[in-house]
Write a structure and sequence with these properties.
The protein has helices at 4-19, 23-36, 58-63, 75-84, 124-137, 211-221; strands at residues 46-50, 67-72, 91-94, 110-113, 143-149, 161-166, 170-178, 182-193, 196-207, 225-231, 234-240. The protein is α/β, with parallel strands linked by helices. Helix 5 (124-137) crosses helix 6. The longest helix is centred in the first third of the chain and has 16 residues, at 4-19. It is globular. The structure holds S-adenosylmethionine. The site of S-adenosylmethionine (SAM) has 20 residues, from helix 1 and strand 2.
């Protein structure tokens, strides 16, 4: 089985920004998302983007004035981030997000982990470990923002085949196979070249985490103000580390 790292390297990184509609669309969406949540630099101005990919959150945060450290396993996506960062300020680090604390010199006021990145961790125990680490390193009054799809309810039969995106030269289909604690995500990408169509295929596992479970872990870790919003199966969670909580 492919690891998350090899899955991105072999199949996903080449088509990641295309699959999501490109930089302009995604940067605009994330600017609006942060605006709606009134996310803006206030204390140290340090922000960490866990599983930053090509920078769809890092770049808007840098534009807002944060000093952003972007951590991801995938070198190609991090290079795309650097090439598309108009502020030229985002610091990119290729490493496991669980090791984020090795790369910070000052406590962050904001940590984000968005677009299913949390579900890429190997086990629910690692998710809890990450939440504990973020709580321990966040500044007092700092915030942790998470977004992920609620995969707790399974799709059935043909609904498990998802036409992700297509154009004249690329056709991307995804097939989801449900296991008790994971979804096996099979990505099938046909790419046209002079030699004809070539199929790139690979699968990896995503965790099936309910928003309630994640919320409970955040509260158990010490976050005091945890707001959960669910829209069309997409969970957005903002957790704040209040004054006087344990671990300050
Ligand atoms: C679905 S993408 C989200 C990227 C970006 N946040 C966005 O919204 O476009 C998940 C990203 O997490 C990265 N990733 C997965 N597991 C990781 C880990 N353990 N440590 C660091 N990055 C990881 C992948 O390489 C990928 O870039």
């Amino acid at each position: 089985m492919a690891t998350v790292e090899t899955h991105y390297k072999d199949v996903l990184s080449d088509v990641y920004s295309w699959m999501l509609g490109g930089f302009d669309l995604q940067l605009a969406r994330n600017r609006s998302f942060f605006e709606k949540l009134r996310i803006r630099p206030d204390i140290s101005r340090n922000a960490i983007d866990l599983g930053a990919g090509c920078g769809f959150q890092s770049i808007p945060l840098a534009e807002l004035g944060y000093s952003v450290t972007a951590i991801d396993l995938d070198e190609q996506l991090l290079q795309e981030l650097k090439a598309n960062d108009p502020t030229a300020t985002v610091k990119v680090i290729r490493d496991d997000m669980l090791a984020f604390a090795d790369h910070i010199t000052a406590a962050p006021e904001l940590v984000v982990c968005m677009t299913d990145t949390l579900l890429h961790l190997e086990t629910a125990a690692r998710v809890r470990q990450l939440i504990d680490e973020v709580f321990a390193h966040l500044e007092v009054c700092g915030q942790f923002v998470l977004t992920f799809r609620d995969l707790s309810r399974p799709l059935e039969n043909l609904d498990r085949f998802i036409p992700v995106k297509q154009d004249d030269d690329t056709v991307f289909t995804c097939f989801l196979e449900y296991e008790p604690n994971f979804v096996k995500v099979h990505d099938l990408v046909y790419i046209r070249s002079d030699a004809g169509w070539k199929l790139n295929k690979s699968f990896y596992r995503k965790l099936r985490l309910s928003p309630d479970w994640v919320r409970n872990q955040l509260v158990a870790a010490g976050f005091s103000d945890v707001r959960v919003d669910i829209e069309q199966g997409l969970a957005s969670i903002v957790a704040a580390k209040s004054t006087g909580t344990d671990g300050d």
